[in-house]
Design brief:
heterodimer; A: mainly alpha; MetI-like fold; disordered C terminus; B: alpha+beta; Rossmann fold; OB fold (Dihydrolipoamide Acetyltransferase, E2P); 6-stranded mixed beta sheet; 5-stranded antiparallel beta sheet; about 25% helix
Chain lengths: ~260, ~350
Amino acid sequence: MKNRTLLAYACFYLAFLYLPVLVLPIFSFNNSAFIAFPLTGFTTRWYEALADSALQQALVNSLKVGVVTALLSTLLGLLAAKAVTQYRLRGRGVALGMISLPLFIPDIVLGISLLLLLGTIGLPLSLASVVLGHLLICAPFSLAVLVARFEGFDPNLEEASADLGEDRWMTFWRVTFPLMLPGIIASLLLTFITSFDEFLVAYFLSGTQATLPVYIWSQLRFPARLPMVLALGTIILCVSVVLVVLAEKLRNQGVKKPMVGA
Amino acid sequence: MSFLSVSQVSKAFGGARVVDAVDLSVERGMFFSLLGPSGCGKSTLLRMIAGFETPDHGIITIDGVAMNGVPPNLRPTNMVFQSYAIFPHLNVFDNIAYGLRKSGLSSDELRRKVEAMLATVRLEGLGARAADQLSGGQRQRVALARALVREPKVLLLDEPLGALDKRLREAMQIELRAIQRKVGITFVLVTHDQEEALSLSDRVAVMSGGRILQVASPRELYDRPNCREVADFIGEINFFHATVKEVTESSVTVNGGLLGIVALPKTNVANGITAGDHVLLAIRPEHVGIAPQGLSGTIAAATFLGERSHFHVKIPGRTEPIAVSGQAPAGESVSLEFPPEKLIALPATG
């Protein structure tokens, strides 16, 4: 009896989580401009309509921002993670807290403050300003992933490499980097998705160069375009799921392999 | 100048002197040990020889070349780390070949060299084994092979056997000694295990509180410790307070309290001891004899350890029981004798 209640609860919970998401692909194949049951028939015309040049431009913008943000935030995360885990730093806790703080600041506050700041110092709004905003949001994620990876890292490994004749640069390439690689890839994927999906900060900072979420938002004003947005949403959803699964898989693979020399 | 020389080397961490004006000289091809309790500065000294720490003062030279300012990757030393630091992403072969990248060997020569080293440490055929599939003893061998294959002038070993269980440790001690004889490289070993230091080394430096107390052969260290700390650290020993009465050419006469007036051969007495000095008489448990006429006491405790059995005898007028080697005789009381030629006199202070 108790088990059955628990099972029903679990089913309800999963339905609550995933049904709204399922609506997206269902209506994206529905042959009607109106989002309402009953379904009227199967079509792929909303997907064909995606071949819109403004939309493609927005997609390219989002990819650019995502890739640059992922690379920069992973690089910053790598350096910060190495610093806080391998050296006895004064103010280590404070530094970690400051880097993680943007996680707890509402994005809308972040967006408005950045908009004001950029306006004050006279920087024009562009994709570059979006990257700056996204860096604030993504750096804590990179740091968290990479700190976890570095914590299992035996500092003797780098000393052993130096002892065996390699300088710092070759030690990094031959020892540190390969051992950090799963963490680095996980961080790249995670930050890319975060940036790619991000709307609020991008909305404030993108100016005339809309990113994909900003473009989708702008299209919602036209009811006729809604099914097309659903089609787009379906594609993004699929790609996001694939990337997240990949990132998690890599992260776990890293955890299973012992990293200490002992 | 000796092959490896450390002169007046000091190192402090946050105000605390970890290594304090240490002088050492190690001859080429020697198996040398730094022995001391944990925290005595022996590992720091080793890391300074390897180049991982910079001395605050003093000079380290290897084969006549001063090492100050030379980074670890350019030093003619290699190290076996306590944690072994085997590269987890490389297999056994690649771990051993790691330090040969710049050696200019062809891939055939490199393979032959690594295979030969695998044979030396008895890991034949395990080259393709992943690092995480190795046992503790195998990791130790890989760490040793990886360092030896570079043919360093000095091989540094930081408690290399500490992580192994007792039986494996004893087997590896014998093997380590055999490998050192075979390759002829100068070994400097750091250990807190006195048996390990005594059984492996040609010479041992005993360290305490950042200073070297005595440098000697294992035999000398055991038979003629130069101070109370060394005597205490190396094996078990009994002490008696005594006062020097007379010093002559060949012997020293002391008033040994419970032992009475004893004349020791001059060679058993530490240098610089003169009449009137307060000294410690020391004697190893295996030199304490059982005699009908002697100091009598009661058997307080007996420990059976096969050939290493010993027992403690409580003597009236003395708080510390006396350790004696061998099986305890039947009965409760026993009388002991202390052959003067086996007694050694140490300075009572320091």
